[in-house]
Specification:
Helix content is 50%, strand content 16%. By secondary structure, the protein is α/β, with parallel strands linked by helices. The chain folds into 2 domains: 4-227 and 301-309, Spore Coat Polysaccharide Biosynthesis Protein SpsA, Chain A, CATH 3.90.550.10; 229-299. An 8-stranded mixed beta sheet has the order 7-5-6-4-1-2-3-8, with helices on both faces. The chain is elongated. Bound molecules: uridine-5'-diphosphate (UDP) and magnesium ion (MG).
Length: 324
C-alpha cells in the first residue's frame, strides 16, 4: 500500500529549549498515526542560540528530520515559505515549536481532510483568554478594519497552524511576493478550509518575540498587502476637505459682505491650515508606505537565503535563485 506523507514545517527562532520538548510531542503523535509517513522540516530562522545544534542532533537520530538554516533572521513568514518550498509530503502542516499549536489535533485534522474532502484544515482559538486586555482590544479592531477594507477574508483568531493539501501548497508557492502576510495568502488562494477551535494555550518555554510595536507593524503590513482602500482614502478625504473649503469660502465671503471685515477668524484660519497640512502629510505617508513596498517587490530579492541544510546543498534553488 502506498502510504501518504505528511510534512510538518516548524519555524524556529532562538528555541533551543523548546525543540526537544516539541519533538517528543510530535513524535508521540506520529506513532499513533501509523497509516501515514512523516517528514519533519525544521527551519532555523537565524537563531543566535543552539537551535541549529539541536536540529542536527535530531537529524542524526531520526531520518524523518530535515533542517534548513538561514544566513540570518528573515522572519517567520520567510521560514514558513522555505518550509513549503522543501516539503515533499502529500499533505503539509505548519506548526509553531512552542506547543501553542497542539500537535494532538493533528489526527483529527488529517481525518477531516481525508474523509470530508476539505483542502485545508485550519485552527483558531476560541477566545483571547490570558492575553493583555489592550492587546485583545487592538487585535479585534484590526480584524474588523482589515475585513472591511479588504476583499480577502482574514479570520479573527486563526492561527498559522494548519494542514493543507498538496494542491493548496502549490498554489501558495505560486505567490512569490516578498512582503508575505500568511494570514492573507492562505485565504487569497481560496480552496475549502474548515476551522477547528481550541482553547488558547500559553507558550511552554522560551518567550514570544512579538512586542506590541512589532504586532502593530505586522498589522500595517497586512493591510498594505491586501487592501488598496487606504490609497483611495487619501483622495476621498482630499475631495471632502476641498468641498468643505468651498463652503467655508462662500460663508466667509458673504459674511464679509454683510458685516464688513474684522480681523477675527484668526483661530479658524490656523485650525484649517493645520488640519489640511495634517491630511496632506497623512496621505503622503500612505502613498509612501505603498511605494516603499512596491520598491522592495521590484528589487525581486530572494525571500530567504540558506546557509546550510540537512541536504547540505548550500545553493537553494527556489530561495536564492527564485527569479531565474
Ligand atoms: N519565529 C521565527 N522567526 C521569527 C520569530 C518567530 O521563525 O523571527 C517562530 C518561533 O520560533 C515560533 C513561531 O515562529 O516557532 C511563533 O513565534 P512566537 O511564539 O514568538 O509567536 P506567538 O505565538 O507569540 O504569535
Ligand atoms: Mg507562540
Amino acid at each position: 500500500m502506498n502510504k501518504k506523507v505528511i510534512s510538518i514545517i516548524v519555524p524556529c527562532y532562538n528555541e533551543e529549549e523548546m525543540i526537544p520538548l516539541f519533538y517528543d510531542e510530535i513524535n508521540k503523535i506520529s506513532q499513533t498515526m501509523d497509516t501515514v509517513l512523516f517528514e519533519f522540516i525544521f527551519v532555523n530562522d537565524g537563531s543566535k542560540d543552539g537551535t541549529l545544534k539541536k536540529f542536527k542532533e535530531l537529524a542524526n537520530k531520526d531520518t524523518r528530520v530535515k533542517y534548513y538554516s538561514f544566513s540570518r533572521n528573515f522572519g517567520k513568514e520567510a521560514a514558513l515559505y522555505a518550509g513549503l518550498v522543501h516539503a515533499q509530503g502529500d499533505y503539509v502542516a505548519v506548526m509553531d515549536v512552542d506547543l501553542q499549536d497542539p500537535p494532538e489535533l493533528l489526527p483529527e485534522m488529517y481525518r477531516l481532510i481525508r474523509e470530508d474532502g476539505y483542502d485545508c484544515i485550519g485552527t483558531r482559538r476560541k477566545d483571547r483568554a490570558g492575553e493583555p486586555v489592550i492587546r485583545s482590544f487592538f487585535a479585534r479592531g484590526f480584524y474588523k478594519l482589515i475585513n472591511r477594507i479588504s476583499d480577502t477574508e482574514i479570520i479573527d483568531g486563526a492561527r498559522d497552524f494548519r494542514l493543507m493539501s498538496r494542491q493548496m501548497v502549490d498554489a501558495i508557492l505560486s505567490m512569490t511576493e516578498y512582503n508575505r502576510f500568511s494570514k492573507g495568502i492562505f485565504s487569497w488562494v481560496g480552496f475549502e478550509t474548515k476551522y477547528l477551535e481550541f482553547e488558547n494555550k500559553e507558550r511552554v518555554a522560551g518567550q514570544t518575540t512579538w512586542s506590541f510595536w512589532s504586532l502593530f507593524k505586522y498589522s500595517l503590513d497586512g493591510i498594505v498587502a491586501f487592501s488598496e482602500v487606504p490609497l483611495a482614502l487619501a483622495s476621498i478625504v482630499g475631495f471632502l476637505t476641498f468641498g468643505v473649503a468651498l463652503v467655508l469660502a462662500l460663508f466667509f465671503a458673504i459674511r464679509t459682505l454683510l458685516f464688513g471685515n474684522a480681523t477675527s477668524g484668526w483661530t479658524s484660519m490656523v485650525v484649517i491650515v493645520l488640519a489640511l497640512g495634517g491630511i496632506q502629510l497623512l496621505s503622503l505617508g500612505i502613498i509612501g508606505n505603498y511605494l516603499g513596498k512596491t520598491f522592495l517587490e521590484t528589487k525581486r530579492r530572494p525571500i530567504y537565503i540558506l546557509k546550510e541544510s540537512s541536504e547540505s546543498n548550500i545553493f537553494d534553488k527556489k530561495g536564492a535563485e527564485k527569479n531565474e
